[in-house]
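Entry 12.
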Amino acid sequence: MPEKSVIIIGGGLAGLSTGVYAQMNGYRAHIFEHHTKSGGVAAAWERQGYLIDGGIHFLMGHRPGQPIYDLYSELGTAQANRFLDMTTYGRFVDEASGCSVDVTGDLDRLASDLKALSPADARIVDELMAGARGMQGSDMLFEVGMGKPPELIDPLDQLRQFWGMRRIFKYFTGRYAKPAADYAQAVHSPLLRQILENLFLPEAPVWFFLMLLALLANRQIGLLERGCLDFVLPIEKRYKALGGQVTYEATVEEILVENDRAVGVRLADGSEHRADIVVSAADGYSTIFKMLGVRYTDVKIKERYRSWMLIRPTVMVSFGVARVFPDDPPLSIIMLKNPFTIGSQAIKGFSLRIFNYGAKFAPPGKTVVQAILETEWDFWNDLQKDRPRYEEEKERVATEVLVRLEAHYPNISSQVEMTDVATPYTTWRYTLNHKGAYMGWLPTPEVIMTPLPRTLPGLANFYMAGQWAMPGGGVPPCLYSGRHVVQILCRRDGKPFVGNQP
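Predicted 3D structure (tokens):
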């Protein structure tokens, strides 16, 4: 039987994963990538001798013996990388009060620090730590929603999942299923409330916060010593070694359909390419409403794209600094005493990444310091139409950030050798992610627990992979989504799926 051909739209993590598993399972894959290189939002670039990593902040399940590590190994990237244990998730700094707290994997220490911060909230602190400890011993944290696609889960699989989650099921319901911002309303201390709301996302469920603490305590959160491109490139290398093709600077404008069957794609240059199967690992909105012209939707899909919130886009300000920061954690969340504005939005705080854990990011004795600020898509998208004003605003934002950093790192302004500002429009320009939403949907309690099909109604030989098909985003879901598509193809075509994982 001749190999079936597969066109994959997008060479990000989901597209590369789809390609690797397609080649492993006897399909002939061809990726068409809009950018000049693979990786999608897992992007890094060089400026004046500094490496700016704009992609993967940390990895879950990076240690051998975990299903996600096995996934990394199948894709060829575990063998090519050194993962560093993340013992402190981040430092929360409140400028107004002068207080700071390290969110550490030592749960006893964390509980003590939080109670010292707010003795009146001891009961809530104990409740959170109990939840984190309850999740610590569960292997199912990596399994739910990832082991198999929803289309292939049978009653026995559901029973197995339920049994595996029997100890921690209570943490996914009731008050733990509330958004962090809602749960935090019961907290007496304004500072502790801010920590719970801003350590991840205020709309994310409390159980996600507990899961992060559990993984941190288990040393199952890791950093990439050499950055995200060194994670991406081995997957691309494995895909090509298996015989897969990639065409770069190839923007897909239309998915070709005949008799309600996807048969190929038409590129921006007018060329057409045919295949037996089409997989979109690209932006979900563009795929459904542009490439397919809204022909294959239903009420649920339209409502999803109308009412589900997107992850808020960011402006990322990176500095190359002639200085080292040996005592700082890789991540801090700084709540500002003196906010500033971007467009109509008040910037009350930002995340700060300090790349002090790998030699590849900066020359010896120097460091990349990166501030990430949530911002508005419309503001930057409108502004970029006037390039001088756009560049002026980027420069202004960088200056505002640097002024705030002076309070924490005196004289840092005089040590800056490189400045780079990436806006939501930058994200869109290189990835075409709808409104610069780098991680797809905002992971609210409803969204993150909603399984989405990999197909569209009425369209044969077409599948979707990536963060728009697996709400929650992040590295493991994107990689698993490509694996899922090929599992579905193998089941459809009546052949065993090749993969080391169960």
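Annotation: The chain has three domains: 4-42+226-309+443-492, 103-214, 314-431. The first strand starts at residue 4 and ends at 9.
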